[in-house]
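TA notes, week 10

Several of you asked for a full example with nothing omitted. So below is the full record: structure tokens for the whole chain, then the designed sequence directly under it. When grading your own attempts, check the secondary structure regions first.
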């Protein structure tokens, strides 16, 4: 058996190795157009950013090493230029000598991959406009940075590679702007789940321009002038709410200057050989194969980024270029050539990406795609701790689960968080592969000890929420329905968070009755009107809704709570803004750029660690600490509560203290506050002091009074309590 393989990286090298392990006597020749085989495409951005420092680490295998292990005839810098499928011969050009020769085959495997798209606008071919696919591309970019010392970089396209490049260019010390045509980055995420990613990218100091298209790149002296077309509404309108979203979308032009450009706007299948050989292809130009990876010519197999895939969930045909599927298809092709009837059963699109400190992971269908397909679905959100919250170092993640209404079958999942995102997405990917339902998720027995998880793992939790939803135990309303709720008094909009959270920011039209005081204030809720409940993350809202619905109210809980809603709406306020300068001339951090905490914290007089505490705990701790501090003292506060960042800024404004800025790392927020504000700020009128008279001897009422009192005290008011 003589097998030729075109392409020597993920698909090609895997097929060659598997074939050799199966058949010691086969003649295997692997052609690779480039100098390297089996290199680490996925690691290339990290070499540019300096995290991978040794060039040798980028090559998983050398041709010599591969030959020694597998006795495969490896011909690098040899390009297969045509196929004669009738004679079963390929023509090959030796790129070192220019010589063209041919080679016959019994079986041929095509693994030529996909090439980066170069858009058609003017300037896309300029020297300082790069794409990234292979090791030579990587060195070109790295050498340019090292030798030309560019100050600014523009990344066109906010997909996986674009975002990885943005992070790594930022790491390499460049001022980075990302331009994305869609209303959100990372297409396999939905808009709502991308909001945290947008905020995080901007918080790290990368400028993000959504709904923006590059129209041209022009050399002007030492600068590249990049012309842009921006949508003036759209993402902004979506996140600003109904007032701004009047349906009008107009375009405007803009330009920015940069020193280099990375184009990462997608890839297309390298199908020239398939076209020439007359193999069947789909409209996108990907080679069509059967489940054994055979093309329309049964002696020619195709694997990896050049092929069409079957979507595992919908069974539709599609195109998802990823390393995992390429490797698996290669194994299937090698098996089949050897006579083992292995089959590739489809691609789920399981993907994961590091975005600075965040981890973003997806599997299956997005909500946008599910809507296009008219599937009757439900969605659930969970905000869960990576491990037991009492054990140090726990951080939070948001899980969005999409499933069929009819039977609870899981259609897709998206997770954004810090630790433990990878294992939860893998569990959910496995569940999808096993055709599980949300009911099955509630039954999964997953490993637990405090440093690793909770007795109810986040995957169980999202299963519980979905099960409760499908069984009608709870009714939800969603962030994108909030603006459409009537504000004419026909429904009750109820914010059950603590008073100081409410004061720091709520949604228009919501009244505040803290959860603990709810049972005592039922007289304020008209039982004839539907009640829309909002808490911080959706959990207390669930309990409140259960209580209210058992008392006869028609009650709805805001899925994901105020946290999810505000992460989406907050995105617009960060939009493109640069660090603002306050009247005293100092840079005031608006969470859009990282604070130089090293410099600032050198003068911190007190350091507070409130990690593990839930709101209002951290604010109260800050309040207590500031009470004992001197005017001008600087306090550094760490918190793992995601609401803390927004709350502390508002709290400082209201209480006449100075918010110096915040940064976040791996889910831990660090804020710097100065006691007092000199002339730079005017405290909001905090209202007068409070007298609370408690007439009841009930424990829960007394506790509720203390909570209200604590919240007021935390806001700088003097509180007196009398128990009668
Ligand atoms: P490739 O690995 O691209 O190999 C194709 C090879 O064929 C190329 O080296 C090419 O030179 C050669 N070739 C083409 N035509 C010919 C010819 N006519 N003759 C001889 N040789 C030829 N995927 C993930 O799942 N996770 C990630 O984190 C991830 N990160 C990535 C980061 C970057 C920067 C890039 C570029 C890709 C990343 N991918 C990632 C995608 C992943 O690398 C691909 O899905 C995978 O490599 C596809 O394998 P393949 O064998 O089809 O093609």
């Amino acid at each position: 058996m003589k097998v030729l393989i075109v392409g020597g990286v993920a698909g090609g090298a895997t097929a060659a190795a598997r074939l050799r392990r199966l058949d010691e006597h086969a003649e295997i020749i692997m052609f690779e157009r480039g100098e390297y085989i089996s290199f680490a495409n996925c690691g290339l951005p990290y070499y540019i950013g300096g995290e991978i420092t040794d060039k040798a680490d980028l090559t998983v295998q050398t041709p010599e090493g591969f030959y020694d292990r597998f006795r495969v005839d490896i011909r690098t810098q040899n390009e297969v230029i045509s196929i004669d499928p009738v004679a079963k011969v390929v023509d090959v050009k030796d790129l070192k000598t220019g010589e063209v020769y041919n080679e016959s085959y019994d079986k041929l495997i095509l693994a030529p991959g996909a090439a980066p798209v170069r858009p058609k606008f003017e300037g896309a071919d300029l020297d300082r406009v790069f794409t990234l696919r292979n090791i030579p591309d990587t060195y070109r970019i790295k050498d340019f940075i090292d030798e030309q010392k560019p100050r600014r970089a523009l990344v066109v396209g906010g997909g996986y590679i674009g975002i990885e490049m943005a992070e790594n260019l930022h790491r390499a010390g460049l001022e980075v702007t990302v331009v994305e045509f869609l209303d959100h980055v990372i297409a396999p995420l939905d808009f709502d789940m991308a909001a945290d990613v947008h905020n995080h990218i901007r918080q790290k100091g990368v400028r993000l321009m959504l709904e923006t298209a590059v129209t041209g790149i022009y050399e002007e002296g030492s600068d590249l002038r990049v012309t842009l077309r921006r949508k003036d509404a759209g993402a902004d309108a979506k996140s600003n709410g109904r007032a701004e979203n009047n349906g009008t979308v107009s375009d405007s032009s803009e330009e920015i200057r940069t020193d280099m450009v990375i184009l990462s706007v997608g890839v297309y299948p390298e199908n020239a050989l398939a076209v020439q050989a007359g193999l069947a292809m789909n409209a996108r130009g990907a080679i069509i194969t059967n489940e054994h990876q055979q093309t329309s010519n049964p002696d020619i197999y195709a694997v990896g980024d050049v092929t069409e895939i079957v979507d595992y969930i919908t069974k539709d045909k599609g195109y998802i270029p990823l390393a995992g599927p390429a490797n698996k298809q290669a194994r299937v092709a090698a098996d089949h050539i050897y006579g083992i009837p292995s089959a590739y059963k489809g691609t789920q699109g399981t993907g994961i990406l590091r975005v600075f400190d965040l981890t973003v992971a997806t599997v299956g269908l997005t909500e946008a795609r599910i809507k296009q397909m008219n599937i009757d679905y439900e969605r659930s959100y969970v905000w869960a701790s990576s491990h037991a919250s009492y054990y140090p170092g726990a951080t939070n993640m948001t899980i969005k689960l999409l499933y069929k209404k009819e039977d609870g079958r899981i259609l897709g999942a998206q997770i954004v968080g810090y630790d433990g995102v990878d294992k939860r997405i893998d569990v959910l990917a496995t569940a999808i592969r096993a055709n599980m339902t949300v009911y099955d998720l509630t039954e999964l027995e997953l490993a637990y000890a405090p440093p690793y998880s909770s007795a109810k793992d986040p995957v169980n939790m999202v299963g519980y929420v979905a099960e409760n939803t499908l069984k009608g135990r709870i009714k939800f309303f969603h962030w994108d329905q909030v603006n459409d709720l009537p504000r004419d008094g026909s429904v009750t909009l109820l914010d059950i968070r603590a008073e100081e959270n409410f004061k720091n920011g709520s949604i228009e039209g919501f009244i505040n009755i803290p959860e603990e005081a709810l049972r005592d204030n039922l007289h304020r809720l008209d039982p004839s009107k539907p009640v829309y409940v909002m808490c911080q993350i959706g959990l207390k809202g669930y309990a409140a809704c259960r209580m209210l619905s058992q008392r006869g109210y028609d009650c709805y809980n805001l899925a994901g709570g105020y946290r999810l809603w505000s992460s989406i709406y907050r995105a617009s306020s960060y939009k493109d803004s640069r660090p603002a300068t306050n009247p005293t001339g100092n840079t005031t951090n608006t969470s859009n750029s990282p604070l130089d905490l090293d410099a600032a914290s050198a003068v911190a007089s007190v350091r507070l660690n409130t990690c593990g505490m839930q709101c209002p705990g951290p604010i109260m701790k800050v309040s207590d600490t500031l009470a004992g501090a001197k005017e001008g003292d600087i306090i550094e506060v760490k918190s793992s509560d995601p609401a803390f960042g927004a709350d502390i800024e508002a709290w400082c404004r209201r209480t006449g203290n100075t918010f110096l800025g915040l940064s976040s790392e791996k889910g831990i927020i660090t804020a710097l506050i100065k006691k007092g504000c000199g002339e730079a700020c005017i405290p909001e009128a905090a209202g007068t002091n409070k007298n609370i008279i408690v007439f009841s001897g009930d424990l829960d009422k007394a506790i509720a009074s203390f909570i209200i009192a604590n919240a007021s005290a935390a806001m700088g008011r003097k509180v007196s309590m009398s128990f009668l």
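Residues 6-7, 9-12, 31-34, 41-42, 44-45, 79-80, 111-113, 132-134, 161, 270, 273, 304-306, 321-324, 326 surround flavin-adenine dinucleotide (CB under 6 Å). Use that as a sanity check on your answer.
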